[in-house]
Amino acid sequence: MTSYRSTDLNLLKVFEALMAEGNVTRAARKLSLTQPTVSNALRRLRVTYDDPLFVRSGAGVKPTRRAIDLWGPLAQSLQTIRGTLEEGRFDALHSSASVSIAMSDYVASIVVPRLTRRLSACAPSMRVHAIPNTLVDFGRVLADNHADFTIGAYTDEVQRPAFLKSRALWSPDFVCVMRASHPLGALKKLSLKKFLSACHIDVSLVGKTLPSYDLFLRSRGLQRNLVVTVNHYAAAYDAIRQSDLIAVLPWSKGLDAPRTAGLLRVPVPLQAPPRVVELFWHQRHETSAFHEWMKTLLLDLFHFPGSKHPP
Predict the structure, then answer these.
(1) How far is the C-alpha of 74 from the C-alpha of 71, rounded, in Å?
(2) Alpha carbons 167 and 186: distance in angstroms, whole number
(3) Tell me, what's the pLDDT at 223?
(4) CA-to-CA distance for 142 and 63, rounded, in angstroms?
(5) CB 298 within 8 A of CB 100
(6) What is the pTM of this model?
(7) Three-class secondary structure of residue 56 per DSSP
(8) What is residue 85's predicted lDDT score, i.e. its pLDDT?
(9) 173, 288 in Cβ contact below 8 A?
(10) Residues of 131-140 as b/e, b for ≥16 C-beta within 10 angstroms?
(11) Around 110, how many Cα atoms within 13 Å sit in the side-chain half-sphere?
(12) Among 74-83, 209-218, 219-228, which stretch is predicted with the lowest mean pLDDT?
């Protein structure tokens, strides 16, 4: 049975490093310890908690269910202890750290300009890396430390991993998009019949068999004439401008990039349930001052109605 007296509190630093790095060698380097020392500490942790805690996964290790359950309260406790012993603040002004965010090109077109503009003022030496975000790799990207955060709309098509933490950023509308001179654009109201029979293009990110709107139509016993799918929103916009294709695409009022200029946006005859774009991160970063600072900054850039962001 685990007790306070039988636990070496220094071992918790090793636990924290393994959660954050997902690799024994990187954890040792972070702690300025040898790999055998970290491996020995892990053995002691396993005895203390009577659980493997971390199991091999590819070139690294991943936490067990028990480790994930432990990390919630331990992360809060470590953060409190660290705050009483050291300043615990991230020095953004003098930092040359880099942040990797997995997101679609649509989300990147909204996030990157705002983020880089804010960083130029408060963290001029920081670097930002946007990497592709797909549903098939939704959790793995964070679990394998390929990105610090992901930003996107979570759907029921993908199981939410237990380690995933999230906060809402904004909620886009979905509108029917077509070129300015499209024959359907002259109609006062787009009927459901004409909408479904028109030639559609949509964005289907890797790992999805059908775009989300088609799954919604299928749930209503309907089907549209989807003739083209692409894996980038920019490609969809370009195709719409140069053809009679129409599309149901997200539109974020006050946030969308100028690339939608010159295109008609008309109401969709059948509106799907609203989606929320969220910021996701791995719970192992809960004690990182850098991640906390970046998370707060990203949340501050998008004031989602009803949510309270930290100052």
Answers:
(1) 5
(2) 40
(3) 96
(4) 13
(5) no
(6) 0.71
(7) strand
(8) 53
(9) no
(10) ebbbbebbbe
(11) 23
(12) 74-83
- The pairing of strands 98-102 and 127-131 is parallel
Dihedral sign for Cα atoms in the order 152, 155, 161, 164? positive
Q: Report the alpha-carbon distance of residue 216 to residue 226 in Å, rounded.
A: 14
Statement: residue 308 has pLDDT above 50: no
Measured in residues, the chain has a length of: 311
**CA 297, CA 276: separation in Å to the nearest integer?**
19
Report how far residue 73's alpha carbon sits from residue 71's, in angstroms, rounded to the nearest whole number: 6
Structure tokens at 273: 């349930």
Q: How far apart are CA 303 and CA 167, in angstroms?
A: 11
**How far apart, in whole angstroms, are the C-alpha atoms of residue 202 and residue 167?**
27
99's enclosing H/E stretch is strand 98-102
Residue position matching structure tokens 């900054």: 297
Q: Which residues of 284-305 are buried (b: 16+ CB within 10 A; e: fewer)?
A: bbbbbbbbbbbbebbbebbebe
Cβ contact 107:55 at 8 Å:
no
pLDDT of residue 181: 92
Non-local (6+) Cβ contacts of 53 within 8 A are 15, 18, 42, 45, 46, 63, 64, 66, 67, 70
DSSP-assigned letter for residue 256: -
Fill in the amino acid letter for 49: Y
Which tokens go with 108? 């990147």
pLDDT digits (tens, 9 = 90+) for 25-35: 888 888 888 88
CA dist., res. 215 & res. 31, Å (int): 48
CA 248/CA 177 separation, integer angstroms: 6
